[in-house]
Amino acid sequence: MTNIDWLLREAMDARVVKTSDRMVIDDASWRATIERVDIGTGLRVFLTDAEARRDITVEARDDRADQWVGSQVTVAGGADIDFQDGEKTRAAPAQALLFRPSGRCAAYSIKAGERFHSAGYNLDVARVRRLFEDDVPEVLCPLLEPGVTVSRILAMRAARPMRTLAGSLFAGGFNGPLRILMIEGVVLQLLAVQAAAVARSPSRASRAFSARERKRIVEARDRLLADMCARPTLDELALAVGLNEKRLNAGFRALFGATVFEVLRNERLDHARIAIAEGARLQEVALRVGYNHPNNFIRAFAARYGTPPQKYFKAATFALARLPRPRSLKN
After folding, report:
1. Phi, psi (5° rounding) for residue 221?
2. Residue 21 pairs with which residues in a beta bridge?
């Protein structure tokens, strides 16, 4: 199989449609042009213009071994997306998507007579971190976690400028290296615009909480992170802000994309990463952020960043002066 195959599901049969750099299909089921553009290491772009002649479902299969964040910005029409782990969403002009799939395939369903004109891209998780100079907006952090077991989806309002950017990827007039440069530049703009849009738009889950509850959830986060060495228990934290434990954990997921103690773990490790990069000893840093045993800290660090601390900093090329500054730690 190639890097991406499309499995066309029909009532009587199923056949794999293998993509090349550019694929044109015109049969009884659909008319489609699908182009895949690989740009260096860690970026793959898909340009799709399809029209279904009958209800169809095509399954995108990916054999990439790396971890990546996906995006879908729809110019016209739409498709229902099933990540096949219980998570579903819809790609439509009014709604752009950033997502982190748990598996290697997703099913796109298009209704008869419907068009699906959309630009998508996959960006390697490590490259996303580098693009943000490791100061990743908090709203995107759930997409960058290692070991995602259930697909994570961030939907945002797709205003006209975002759709215009996506549509520009289909424009002619560029060839060879110039086209590659153009596509890469547009994708980076889309990532920035999408990150800003999702940060401005509360998720449906967060809208299930009143303004008073959201204020209490934010207060709980501040209390949780005030002293990383002496974390409160969940019931202590819930009692302190006047919410029950279940509601508090649900609020953390809605507002911050992670449970109470996932937020604490991530913040601990982010502080530790910066402190070690600035010259602090690993064992000392582990204790400062609440790990009594260095081996536990090393395992947690490797789970979050994909490699143990020693290898991570040996491979890192970012300048220390550009590292994000944490809030002060209590000793």
Report:
1. -65, -40
2. none
Is there a contact between 276 and 309 (Cβ–Cβ < 8 Å)?
Answer: yes
Residues 217-273: pLDDT tens digits?
989 999 998 887 788 899 999 999 999 998 898 888 877 777 888 888 888 888 888
pLDDT in tens, 289-313: 888 888 999 988 888 777 788 887 7
Can you state the percent helix, strand and coil of the chain, rounding each to 5?
Answer: 40, 25, 30
pTM of the model: 0.61
Collapsing DSSP states into helix, strand and coil, what is residue 15? strand
User: Residue for token digits 């889309």?
Assistant: 190
Is the sign of the CA dihedral 234, 236, 237, 241 positive or negative? Answer: positive
Per the document, the length of the chain is: 331
Give residue for tokens 């819809």: 90
User: How many CB atoms are closer than 10 A to CB 190?
Assistant: 21
Instruction: Number of helices (H) and strands (E) in the chain: give both, helices first.
Output: 11, 13
Q: How many CB atoms lie within 10 A of CB 96?
A: 27
d(CA 317, CA 129): 12
